[in-house]
Design goal:
- This protein is an alpha/beta fold.
- It is 43% helix and 10% strand.
- It contains 25 helices and 17 strands.
- Strands 12-11-9-14-17-16-15 form a seven-stranded mixed sheet, with helices on both faces. A four-stranded antiparallel sheet has the order 1-5-4-3.
- Helix 14 runs parallel beside helix 22, helix 19 crosses helix 25 and helix 23 packs antiparallel against helix 24.
């Protein structure tokens, strides 16, 4: 076996780590500062490089080779460092005890008093997550010194929920901490050292080591319950003044950096938080903000499969955005869409994008707000986000696949340079604003119903995720560049239409000059007729800008942005699907080829069902009212239930279950029966249905990519799927 990766990687780490360990056994604060980052990088790799750590990592990937495992271990280095450094750091001493600290073959021990050795969270090779409030990390520096890391909220209040995640538990963040803040006051007594050793031994895989044989059996010298260990590990209250609080740092260029005690760089926005008690009965509204009754939503779900009840849900934020847009654009008093377009100003564009930015602070924990893999039918759409393409696909997905998750069309100004920001430079977004607004307003009835979930780009809230995603996409494209003629033709057509709208947005005088430059001998009457014709084209095109580019009170527009948004990309689509327990839905031939590339060589499952599915025609609702009526009347109610059962079956088989031909035959027969009945009902309800074809993909092992599994580990997701069992391509037949 080639061990080149291990030798090259661990050589430098061990050399620097040994110096850091010696520095923190001493009292030289300047040495602490110099070795601070090295210490935590060393402790982090000591948690992952062990047999138990590698078994934990291996469990998140489908049969990785040794080299693949080593590469993934390198990629997730420093996974725990941010949360550790933001906690309370204490170094305790065993100098006055006749029993010294032991060490194990998994030297970084995570202790949580609510997770005794037999608890589900401690099932090998798992440890309680360090992000849980009461999780504490134990790392012996020598037989006389031990590092103990405690989350601040738990140190301040030991009665807090031990299994709840700490506030702002995000990995791989830049954070400012005091490198000299270590509590070093405690000298442990014999019984306290025994408690620490008991925790270390309980989390070992196979081996422990000690200076004396009798130290190897701490459990024989103490009969206390597991919870008693917490009394020793909690840092002293009089030492906590070193930690927490707010930080302000002013730089020479005048910028001021702000950070609160949890590493957040923005003030908490109280209007986004809810203070609701649990629903009084099953008939009351669910606390997750889905709009459903508690009994039909979260009542039967365990707490870890519920979206957050503490913050406004994704749906509730979209409702607030809708209310804001209605007021800003005065939609209630507008006669028609043309009047709305004429009334749009740069100030209104700025207000809408500012509202969107306010509803989604950069410190948002999006994972806590997304639905969880709870068995409910849902799909993630990945493809072109354009009014002429996404709306019919979204409506079709809502009919046949349950809830459809679609990435929000609005741009978030918080991650943009001022010259590209819709808040700082709204005039450049006049064309893009119309597209964003039209998509949002068109889909809102189904957003309100909970059948469409417009979620923001996850990379907005996680710079590390964004960098990783971009690197992965560039690497993938360099290895296997994909081009699709039909996709390129579709993009070219949309680009031409948007370019035509941009040209039509010129002021009339500029338009006259351009026409005369093209045809200098054009007579005045013909010139005015052409201008009038262009004006009529603008009126009839719902995406055309109607306000003049140099309208009174507005700055001269020097350019318009026309964005092509095919989102989320391949990696983030699978990432969100695994997070939410969704299938993948696309209308993009390009994206479909990427998905097929990910499952190349895998055997297809459910051949009978797939054949029936791929040869059938599905009616696509032309307008949102058709989709809402069909949902209300229950014409397609059986489809999402069937999709959920197919999903559950494939997930079970992909995770080691035995295929059952009789179940597969029943699923195929069930589809054939319901499809004939449902399509006949839809034909009666819709006046002008659009014919479409849905191509299915049920690969053995599901749609899975090691890079996506890495992104999930880095995002501190506690509950996600190991693969996406199925994917679908929707194609219009017109």
């Amino acid at each position: 076996m080639n061990d080149e990766i291990e030798r090259k990687m661990f050589g430098d780490i061990d050399r620097a780590g040994s110096q850091a360990i010696r520095a923190f056994q001493g009292a030289d604060v300047s040495e602490w500062h110099r070795h601070f980052q090295t210490l935590f990088e060393y402790v982090d790799i000591q948690k992952i490089r062990t047999p138990k750590g590698l078994d934990w990592l291996r469990r998140h990937y489908p049969q990785p080779s040794q080299n693949e495992l080593m590469l993934e271990m390198q990629a997730i280095r420093a996974l725990h460092c941010t949360i550790w450094t933001e906690g309370v750091r204490e170094i305790v001493s065993a100098e006055e005890s006749d029993v010294k600290f032991i060490i194990s073959d998994h030297p970084v021990t995570v202790y949580n008093f609510a997770c005794p050795p037999g608890a589900p969270l401690c099932t090998y090779p798992d440890d309680p997550s360090i992000a849980l409030k009461a999780s504490q990390t134990i790392f012996p520096l020598s037989r006389n010194y031990c590092l103990i890391l405690t989350n601040l909220e738990y140190a301040q209040n030991a009665s807090t929920d031990p299994l709840e995640k700490r506030t702002f538990a995000k990995n791989f963040r830049n954070s400012m901490v005091r490198t000299d803040a270590f509590i070093r006051a405690r000298k442990l007594q014999r019984f306290e050292v025994l408690r620490v050793n008991r925790a270390i031994k309980a989390r070992a895989k196979r081996y422990i080591a000690a200076g004396r044989r009798e130290w190897l059996f701490p459990e024989s010298q103490t009969a206390e319950p597991w919870e008693a260990i917490a009394q020793t590990l909690l840092p002293p209250q009089d030492g906590l003044w070193h930690f927490g609080g707010e930080m302000f740092a002013k730089f020479t260029d005048g910028r001021v950096y702000y950070q609160d005690q949890f590493g957040r760089t923005e003030k908490q926005r109280d209007f986004l938080f809810k203070h609701k008690s649990a629903p009084a009965s099953s008939k009351h509204s669910c606390g997750c903000g889905s709009g459903k009754a508690f009994g039909a939503c979260c009542e039967k779900k365990p707490s870890f499969l519920r979206p957050s009840w503490r913050e406004l849900s994704i749906r509730e934020r979209n409702i607030r955005l809708y209310i804001g847009i209605t007021k800003i654009l005065d939609l209630e008093n507008a006669k028609d869409w043309s009047e709305v377009r004429r009334g749009i100003t740069d100030d209104k564009i700025r207000e809408v994008y500012f509202l969107y930015q306010a509803l989604w602070p950069l410190e948002t924990d999006l994972i806590s707000l997304l639905p969880k893999p709870d068995g409910e039918p849902r799909s993630v759409f990945t493809g072109l986000i354009h009014p002429s393409t996404v709306t019919p696909i979204a409506l079709t997905g809502a009919l046949y696949f349950g809830t459809v998750l679609i990435q929000h069309p609005f741009q978030h100004a918080g991650t943009m340079k001022p010259k590209f920001s819709p808040v700082e430079n709204p005039s450049a977004y006049r064309q893009e604003f119309l597209k964003d607004i039209l998509i949002f307003l068109s889909l809102f009835p189904l957003i309100d119903l909970g059948r469409i979930n417009l979620f923001p780009d996850p990379c907005i809230f996680d710079a590390h995720l964004r960098r990783q995603m971009m690197d992965m996409a560039e690497m993938r494209n360099a290895r296997n560049p994909l081009h699709d003629r039909s996709e390129e033709e579709r993009l070219r057509k949309l680009a031409e239409e948007d370019t035509q709208r941009m040209i039509m947005s010129f002021p009339n005088e500029v338009m006259r000059q351009q026409l005369l430059r093209f045809k200098p001998d054009m007579k005045r009457p013909l010139l005015e007729n052409v201008i009038d014709h262009i004006q009529r084209l603008k009126e009839s095109d719902p995406l055309a800008i109607l306000q003049a580019a140099d309208a009174a009170g507005q700055e001269q527009v020097t350019g318009l942005l026309n964005l092509v948004k095919m989102t989320p990309n391949f990696e983030i689509a699978i990432y969100v699907a695994q997070l939410t327990g969704s299938s993948i839905l696309t209308d993009s031939a390009y994206r479909w080829r990427e998905i097929r590339g990910a499952v190349a060589g895998k055997r297809a499952r459910l051949s009978k069902l797939s054949s029936s599915f791929n040869s059938s025609t599905f009616k696509m609702p032309p307008m949102v009212v058709d989709a809402v009526n069909s949902i209300d009347e229950g014409a397609t109610r059986a489809y999402p239930a069937l999709m959920a059962d197919i999903f559950k079956y494939l997930l079970r088989v992909n995770n080691g279950g035995v295929p059952k031909p009789n179940v597969e035959d029943r699923l195929a027969a069930r589809f054939s029966r319901l499809h004939s009945t449902a399509q006949s009902a839809l034909a009666k309800q819709m006046e002008w249905p659009i014919a479409s074809q849905i191509t299915s993909m049920f690969p053995s092992g599901g749609v899975q990519h090691n890079h996506v599994n890495r992104l999930l580990l880095m995002s501190s997701s506690e509950h996600h799927l190991s693969n996406v069992p199925m994917a679908f391509l929707i194609s219009r037949q017109d």
